[in-house]
Amino acid sequence: MQNTTKRLFLGFSVKKTLECQFFDMQQKLTLYINTEALAVLQSNMHITLGFLGQVKPSCIPALLTEVDALEKPSFELVLSAISCWQKPQIICLQGQAHTPLLTMASQVQQIAAKLGLHQSTYHYCPHLTLFRRASCMTLPQQPVMGLNDLLPVNVPVSQLHLYESYNSQSGVQYDILHSWPLVPDQ
Known about the structure:
- By secondary structure, the chain is α+β, with helices and mostly antiparallel strands.
- It has one domain (6-181): Cyclic phosphodiesterase (Cyclic Phosphodiesterase, Chain: A).
- It has 3 helices and 9 strands.
- The protein has helices at 16-30, 60-68, 99-115; strands at 6-13, 38-39, 46-55, 75-85, 90-95, 127-132, 153-157, 159-168, 171-181.
- The strands form 2 sheets. A 5-stranded antiparallel beta sheet has the order 2-6-5-4-7, with helices on one face. Strands 3-1-8-9 form a 4-stranded antiparallel beta sheet.
- Strand 8 (159-168) and strand 9 (171-181) form a beta hairpin.
- Helix 2 runs antiparallel to helix 3 (99-115).
- The longest helix is centred in the middle third of the chain and has 17 residues, at 99-115.
- 27% of the residues are buried.
């Protein structure tokens, strides 16, 4: 039976050079976390703006129209802390959302509500996931040698993407379905 919905989210990609830096962080953390944890593939590294859930293909044109109308300022995000989130079982690099990013995240939630899509029950916190299925108990209490030298990471963001998440033979895959340029401050 063919899947009649797509698992979608809006987010920001990261530059290839930063993917390599994040991969280096994963390698340093690997010795300290549970063996069931799954490292996020470099090609899947991104910063989520809003998870939309299972979306019917017939709803996608309206979603694109709504996102077209969003104000989309470019920004630089500073990821400054390694965090472990127990409920989603992830280890991530976490940053602080400034007003333009918080505004965009709020507008995405409004779009989701308008279109009857998934809405987050959590306050928006920008992050880049390094590991999924991670037990938070295993995140080291002491700084990992060489890891603090890699923080903070400045992530310049210049495009917003609509991603589809799906399972493939090689694991979870994130494909970009549509992109929008972010507009530099005038």
